[in-house]
Amino acid sequence: MADRDISQAVIRRLPRYYRYLGELVDDEIERISSGELSDKMNVTASQIRQDLNNFGGFGQQGYGYNVKYLYNEIGKILGLDNIHNIVIVGAGKLGMAIANFPSFNNRGFITKALFDINKDVIGSNVHGAPVLHIDALVKFINENDIDIAVLTVPRQGADEVTSLLLKSNIKAIWNFTNKDLVVPENVSVENVHLLDSLMQLSYTITSR
Amino acid sequence: MADRDISQAVIRRLPRYYRYLGELVDDEIERISSGELSDKMNVTASQIRQDLNNFGGFGQQGYGYNVKYLYNEIGKILGLDNIHNIVIVGAGKLGMAIANFPSFNNRGFITKALFDINKDVIGSNVHGAPVLHIDALVKFINENDIDIAVLTVPRQGADEVTSLLLKSNIKAIWNFTNKDLVVPENVSVENVHLLDSLMQLSYTITSR
DNA sequence: TAGATTGTTAATCGATTAACAATC
DNA sequence: TAGATTGTTAATCGATTAACAATC
């Protein structure tokens, strides 16, 4: 892997390509041209070809793209050929919901444990994963080959948990708190700012 | 409200400005310059001024911006001075989690009911909102002044529920299914594609 | 008044789209 | 071979940044 300087805009579109190609695989479609895919996805054929050619030439002139091959290649680019072990910090309603998401497990994102400070939930079990006290977090990450920490604590706890995570070997934080995290650049952060998203929706309603 | 053709990039940034200004209000900071805000938010001062001036001149030369005033104005732009009534379609773990999110209620997004087809949850009560059968959905939306439908059903149910929603007066759909919805242009859609987001994180880990 | 900082125009940069030669 | 469609270069479009005159 590892072409650097692929633009963020391209990376954001990759999972969407992967999704549509997955549907085509399910439908047992064998080949597709950028033009046909363009119609399905509502993006220009030009953009599709440009995007893919950031990672290499996956097509063939006069033929198009082999669906299954392209699907697998994009999967590899996205790192989906590897298992990613996950911990969820904050075993509230949202954390529990994420631990139970079947589509994550199906793609190789495996929740190994949840962490909380609430004694009522510590010791219980979510979809096979134990809920542990947050004191055990750093050790657990380092000893269980954990890639990704999901941050589903209340906003006020975000910074404290983050500085704890930074003491471990964590590679990435999936941040559901409505706060921007400050991390060194060898740690990736992907934000899911739900309230921001809802406000955008409110804007579009309001501005009609 | 209602300047048309504000770019999507600007709209995406508005909630973030709102968030930072909210913190400044809490800290009882009275005024701030685009330069200071730029340092805090890690965006250019130029961008801040450009963004705000899409909606009017909120600042004053030589002084900067009054924090509280700007906060309120952005709130109005985002439509947060109005109550938005919400229904959640799909009363699974994720739907329940969203119904319980305190920050939504605090901003005037009020969950009025949840809908499902599972008899085990129908009749129950989530944070004061009833769980009803999906057959009652259209009528409920039209009679209860519902703006926003949250879609937290499994992927396979997405299209069916969407076509049901389009029979109602719904204004916006907050889509948590991993599917792109097809709606007429008087209905707004905001996607939260969690699996896509997780895949992006996987990409950044993989491409180091 | 002098200093600070906005609002806004102009310059730059990057991303998207169009075009087309290469080639299967 | 002729037709189709890619990979890629060039043109366009839009968004970001820089600069500065206006003005509080």
TrEMBL record, chains A, B:
InterPro entries per record: CoA-bd, NAD(P)-bd_dom_sf, Rex_DNA-bd_C_dom, Tscrpt_rep_Rex, WH-like_DNA-bd_sf, WH_DNA-bd_sf
Top-level taxon in the UniProt lineage: Bacteria
Assembly behavior: Homodimer.
Gene3D superfamilies named among the record's database cross-references: NAD(P)-binding Rossmann-like Domain, Winged helix-like DNA-binding domain superfamily/Winged helix DNA-binding domain
Pfam families to which the protein is assigned, alphabetical: CoA_binding, Put_DNA-bind_N
PANTHER family recorded: REDOX-SENSING TRANSCRIPTIONAL REPRESSOR REX, REDOX-SENSING TRANSCRIPTIONAL REPRESSOR REX 1
Family, as annotated: Belongs to the transcriptional regulatory Rex family.
GO molecular function: DNA binding; DNA-binding transcription factor activity
SUPFAM superfamilies linked: NAD(P)-binding Rossmann-fold domains (SSF51735), Winged helix' DNA-binding domain (SSF46785)
Domain named CoA-binding: residues: 79-180
Main location, first listed in the record: cytoplasm
Role this protein plays: Modulates transcription in response to changes in cellular NADH/NAD(+) redox state.
GO CC terms: cytoplasm
Gene symbol of the encoding locus: rex
Keywords for this protein: Cytoplasm, DNA-binding, NAD, Repressor, Transcription, Transcription regulation
Name of this chain's protein: Redox-sensing transcriptional repressor Rex
GO biological process, one term: negative regulation of DNA-templated transcription
Residues binding NAD(+), per UniProt: 90-95
DNA-binding annotation, residue ranges on this chain: 16-55
Location relative to the cell: Cytoplasm
